[in-house]
Amino acid sequence: MKQERILMAHGSGGLMSQRLIEEIFKSAWDNEIMAPMLDGAVFEIPAGRLAMSTDSFVITPLFFPGGDIGKLSVCGTVNDLVACGAHPMYLSTAFIIEEGFPLADLRRIAGSMAATAKETGIKLITGDTKVVEKGSADGIFINTTGIGVIKEGIDLRPSRIVPGDLIIVTGYIGDHGLSILAQREGLRFSTPAVSDCAPLYQLTALTDKYQQAIKCMRDPTRGGLATVLNEIAQQAGAGINITEAAVPVSEVVKGASDMLGMDPLYMANEGKMVLFVSAEASHDIMADLKKIPLTSHASIIGEVTSTATGMVLIETELGARRILGMLEGEHVPRIC
Amino acid sequence: MNEISQYQQKLLQAIQKVSKSITLMEVCGTHTMAIAKSGIRELLPENITLLSGPGCPVCVTSQGDIDAIIEMVQIKDIILVTFGDMIRVPGTNSSLQEERSKGADIRIAYSPLDALRIARKNPHKEVVFLGIGFETTAPAIAITVEQASAEQLRNFSVFSLHKVVPPALEHIFSDQEIRVDGLICPGHVSMIIGTGPYDILTEKYKKPCVVTGFETIDILEGIYMLIKQISQGEAKTETQYRRLVKREGNLIARQAIDQVFELVDAKWRGLGLIEQSGLALHHAYAEMDARLKFNIAEKAEIPIKGCVCGEVLTGKIIPTACKLFGKACTPLNPVGPCMVSQEGSCAAYYRYTPWKGSNK
Amino acid sequence: MCLGVPAKVIEIRENSTALVDVNGNQTEINIRLTPEVQLDQYVLVHAGFAMEIIDESIARETMQYLEEIMQYE
Quick check: B331 and A336 CB within 8 A? Predict the structure, then answer.
């Protein structure tokens, strides 16, 4: 059977564009807001503050253990909204597709976006598709923009962090970065590591419940945990002390990192959150996190201090403290 | 606390008890990294100094050699395959990273065998492997060259920047300005060359050498062994890394190096020209020597203004004593090679700076 | 430069290659430099090659200076 592929005509705005949208996108995402097929989505929102976040997704390979670019594009924006303390509600998406892209892959990507959105309770309400000439894009690029509603009283931001607050990471780090790396051409190794790509919408129950105690959250994606901690230390004007031994890293990720000369602290995650919480509530928050499957391996990794402001210090296994810097340049495998 | 952590603490305490002023040098970049990352340096008492020697192959590569490679990648239809760290090293006017953005085909590999795969896949292109590293890496390149030769893979060649460690150590010991009481010897280089080369050093210069592994526990043991020898006035070659290093090294690997390479004089950044310290492809493999194949002439050394990588590499000054350190020269915008390579002393100091308690 | 990782040989293959395992991560390496390597032995892997076989009897014999240090305490 001949494989159906995206043609330039699919992006022409004519009949073929219409068919593509009807067959692939609308059928996967059908909901009452998208149904009238207007030039934009028309919808109502509950009263209150809103959070809005946008992100573009480019990844090789498009399909990887634990997810694909479609799932990733929904999770990424959902998690950014969750990190703002918002309940994710609506999502828009835009595709840039390379001429010749297999329709079956597009269908699969649209399907996994729909499934992830459904699981999260977020609605895909408007979208756009452009086709570019062969060679002008790497398969497919996806942008998503999300809107969420923030309940009254929730105010997550670095400036609320104070010395004494504890830092929680919601589970094992580095798995996404490693699973993607293993798929890359050239690095011929296999790993049981699976991307942690997941929508962390259940954390909204915690941000609602611990309005005062949860000060700030951020998802450690590109640049990894080390980079996020540095950003927050700078933004909060506080010092951060973490203990190397408390950071959850699986033996698989440790082994592969040794093999490739990489550091899990700088590897990307797509289903983790870093929480800054008050020490008094930390016990209860940890107990609640442990009840949610996606965050059941949460660990308190360190605390906020008033010394060494703007910096992250890590206590090594040997008991020494050194500076944990931000990622500089590309995090490439090395043997030297 | 488990048994190993307890033992590590005991070793540390024993080391901390020494009152004599002792300067040790680690001559392997992987040791530099491991020492920095584990925080060993911070936990040592002030009378024990750890210097980082010329053990990072990227760092000791001369400016002229880097410029020569940059000239080569501009030739049409060349695919340059290299290990990760080389990509950011600045030449006089450009870096491989910059050349890649301008369209040069430069690929990062984990093994030299990957370059053979690329050569088979691209018969109409010239695939050049950038051979860099010491005796640990050279056997891998040697086997790769032999394989390419057996397959008659005519579009494959090697640009060899390989260097050997013992002549550089001799250079350091013979320099009156460099005061080193003992050497933490490179575990993986020694796994190939054995411990014989150190005997010459211990006899001639009366400085102890301990071949050391790379785990925190190994390094602490290595330091302990050196300090013990120094305290007792001894100077012999010992091996801490016994699980891997044999007296004679790996004979097959040594043979592979001897068959494929020949010793030549080589320029080391910071150390200058050292006789018989480089590995060039043996004339029997001349057609696979990228320098000859693409007619790349030697380039003059243009020193980088203000950069004292040379003195850092010989342990004459510590990285933080350089005027550029952390200001004009950072891992993101490296001026000298010691800041580029993750194993470079400057990068290790910058990334894993011990926390001394004051704010910045 | 001399980054190396201990890996367990889990399959010996044709053309002097072997499959090795590091905590569940697997990769094929060249074993020309350690031709006598056997299944289940650990090797030191560098740049896709087994560089040497690890002597496990010594690997287990860690903490060689513990007694000595304790004596001086």
Answer: no
Q: Classify residue A336: in a domain, yes or no.
A: no
| Same domain as A316, residue A175 | yes
Pairing state between β C5-13 and A214-218: unpaired
Contacts of C8 in chain A (CB under 8 A): none
Count of domains observed in chain A? 2
A161-171, pLDDT tens digit by residue? 999 999 999 99
Q: Same structural domain for residues A296 and A268?
A: yes
Q: Rounded to a whole number, what is the distance in Å from the CA of A192 to chain C's nearest CA?
A: 6
Q: Kindly list the domain boundaries of chain C, sorted by start residue.
A: 5-71
In chain C, what residues touch A258 (CB-CB under 8 Å)? 5, 22
Is the residue at A331 inside a domain?
Answer: no
List of E strands, chain A: 49-57, 63-64, 67-68, 86-98, 123-132, 140-150, 166-169, 189-190, 214-218, 239-243, 274-277, 299-305, 312-315, 321-323
Same domain, A76 and A207: no
Q: How far is CA C54 from the centre of its chain?
A: 4
Q: Which residues of B touch C69 (CB under 8 A)?
A: 10-11, 13-14
pTM of the full structure: 0.91
Whole-angstrom Cα distance, residue A261 to residue A226? 16
Residue A329 included in any domain:
no
B293-305 burial string, b = 16+ CB within 10 Å, else e? Answer: bbebeebeeeebe
Q: Residue A109: give its domain's CATH number.
A: 3.30.1330.10
Q: Residue A193 maps to which CATH number?
A: 3.90.650.10
| Beta carbons of B29 and C34 less than 8 Å apart | no
* pLDDT above 60: residue B75: yes
pLDDT band at residue A335 under the 50/70/90 scheme? low
Which of C46, C55, C63 has the CB atom closest to B137's CB atom?
C46
Residue A1 lies in a domain: no
Taking contacts as CB-CB distances below 8 angstroms, the residues of chain B near A313 are 355
CB contact under 8 A, C22 and A255: yes
Residues 8-47 of C with CB under 8 A from A: 22-28, 45-47
Q: Which of B24, B68, B19, B80 is nearest to B45 (CA)?
A: B19
Q: Which chains are adjacent to chain A, needing at least 3 Cβ pairs under 8 Å?
A: B, C
Same domain? A254 vs A193: yes
Q: Chain A contacts of C2, Cβ < 8 Å?
A: 336
A332 CB within 8 Å of a chain C CB: no
B152, B95 Cβ separation under 8 angstroms: no
User: Which residues form the domain of A284?
Assistant: 158-323
pLDDT digits (tens, 9 = 90+) for A74-116: 999 999 999 999 999 999 999 999 999 999 999 999 999 999 9
Q: Closest partner residue to B110 among C35, C47, C52, by Cβ?
A: C47
C5-71 under CATH 3.30.230.30, yes or no:
no
**C43/chain A closest Cα distance in angstroms:** 13
A196 and A59 in a single domain? The answer is no
Which ipTM score applies to this complex? 0.93
Q: How near does any CA of chain C get to the CA of A250, in Å?
A: 9
Helix (H, G, I), strand (E, B) or coil at C42: strand
Domains observed in chain B:
21-57+169-184+199-239 (3.40.50.11750), 58-164+250-293 (3.40.50.11740), 319-351 (no CATH)
Count CB neighbours of A42 within 10 A.
10
Please report the number of interchain residue pairs, chain A to chain B, with beta-carbon separation below 8 angstroms. Answer: 93
Interval B269-316: pLDDT, tens? 878 899 999 999 999 999 999 999 999 998 887 777 888 888 887 778
